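Hi V.,

Quick status before I head out on leave. The structure for the redesign project is tokenized and pasted below; the design run finished overnight.
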């Protein structure tokens, strides 16, 4: 049973913040060092000061990124930089965007922001689709304990083929949005408030029988679970920590887009290109490509060929330098069920699973623990920086990926089958700072 609730969101006061653009951010894990510095320069009240604070020499348990974040947060509340809504609401959240690389392909993704009662995965209400890493969860837990606030939403998918919930909320989005901002990727984010009890109740009751799949925010969801459990141990079983802020999006909607996340390999101790290609051909056919264009154009053409190959079966792009690139396609005579008998067939033929279980583990000898600790690989979402790292000698090779199909994400998650970390990149991201769930806000839910 999925329990969602309206809540009194904390948000930037429009009288005290002239431009919402200056204070909202991409989610914490999307913020690069360059973005972090830019956000910090934009405004002393930018959400990055809290969700992605700058470390300082001499940081101590009494003065560090977490304690400073808590100080900023309380100061902004006292100055009414952040203010609470007078009554609980559900917040329709629409994103109008162009698909990256396809400027004429405009889409709209529609969802709504609400609170969700936290459930352990074994309860069968909330399902994960990716593995998580311990480092980000430890970091987010310290921040949550310090601030007792969620500035970003967890992205949840739900199934509603008839679209009844979405249609009811649509009726409340005819007027000007309550909040609207265009981000640095030219995505327009619009948020409305719905306080009408009949509409709120329709959404609450409509979501009750649903199962949810985490599209983005696994680390933050598991962090919220850990904090909830700490509160329970302290005798606070019915505290506001039982809930987390989410954006729910209908998985049948045509506004959902998944982008690939590429893998850049570095510090491989026994790597040799010739041996790698030879060993890989036990499992794959190798198609070498001659790309004489500059990095950006070469990457675009390699991705085009990879997309074409992926329509025929599992395929992975390989870039080891300007003179060495091509595509690995799983051999048609290869029985993957014999090599990976413990992996269900619905997972075993996914590109990202084949990459991790065959190329990383068997061909390159990188064990799963090293993968989890990111000892030999970086996850890179955009192709140009991935290829540039190889060309500049900062990495030895790059594996380029096609996106994981949404249907595969949904079906495997509901069946309890978990994909490797960074298997998906749902685009666009949900902005942080549009609404805030403050656990100490009186009557916040």
């Amino acid at each position: 049973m999925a329990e969602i609730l309206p809540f009194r969101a904390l948000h930037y006061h429009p009288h005290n913040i002239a431009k919402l653009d200056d204070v909202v951010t991409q989610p914490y894990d999307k913020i690069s060092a360059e973005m972090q510095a830019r956000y910090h320069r934009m405004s002393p009240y930018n959400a990055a000061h809290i969700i992605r604070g700058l470390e300082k020499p001499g940081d101590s348990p009494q003065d560090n990124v977490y304690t400073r974040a808590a100080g900023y947060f309380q100061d902004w509340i006292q100055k009414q930089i952040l203010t609470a809504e007078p009554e609980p609401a559900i917040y329709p959240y629409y994103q109008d965007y162009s698909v990256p690389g396809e400027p004429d392909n405009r889409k709209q993704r529609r969802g709504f922001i609400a609170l969700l009662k936290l459930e352990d995965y074994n309860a069968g209400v909330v399902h994960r689709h990716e593995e998580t890493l311990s480092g980000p969860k430890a970091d987010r837990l310290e921040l949550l304990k310090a601030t007792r606030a969620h500035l970003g939403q967890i992205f949840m998918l739900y199934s509603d083929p008839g679209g009844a919930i979405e249609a009811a909320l649509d009726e409340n989005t005819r007027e000007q949005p309550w909040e609207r901002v265009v981000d640095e990727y030219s995505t327009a984010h619009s948020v409305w408030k719905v306080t009408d009890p009949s509409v709120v109740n329709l959404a609450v009751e409509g979501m009750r029988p649903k199962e949810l799949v985490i599209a983005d925010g696994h680390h933050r969801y598991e962090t919220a679970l850990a904090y909830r459990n700490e509160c329970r141990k302290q005798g606070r079983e019915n505290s506001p920590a039982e809930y987390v802020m989410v954006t729910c999006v209908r998985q049948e909607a045509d506004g959902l887009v998944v982008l690939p996340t590429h893998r850049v390999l570095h510090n491989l101790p026994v790597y040799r290109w010739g041996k790698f290609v030879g060993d890989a051909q036990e499992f794959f056919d190798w198609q070498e490509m001659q790309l004489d264009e500059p990095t950006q154009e070469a990457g675009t053409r390699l991705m085009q060929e990879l997309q074409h190959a992926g329509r025929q079966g599992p395929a992975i792009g390989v870039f080891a330098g300007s003179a060495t690139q091509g595509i690995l396609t799983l051999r048609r005579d290869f029985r993957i069920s014999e090599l990976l008998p413990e992996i269900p067939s619905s997972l075993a033929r996914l590109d990202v699973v084949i990459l991790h279980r065959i190329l990383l583990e068997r061909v390159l000898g990188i064990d799963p623990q090293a993968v989890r600790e990111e000892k030999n690989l970086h996850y890179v979402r955009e192709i140009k920086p991935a290829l540039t790292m190889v060309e500049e000698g900062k990495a030895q090779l790059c594996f380029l990926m096609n996106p994981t199909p949404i249907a595969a994400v949904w079906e495997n998650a509901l069946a309890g089958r978990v994909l490797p970390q960074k298997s998906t990149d749902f685009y666009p991201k949900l902005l942080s700072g549009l609404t805030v769930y403050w656990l100490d806000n009186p009557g916040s839910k």
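Above is the designed sequence. The CA atoms of residues 13 and 81 lie 5 Å apart.

G. will cover questions while I'm gone.

Best,
W.
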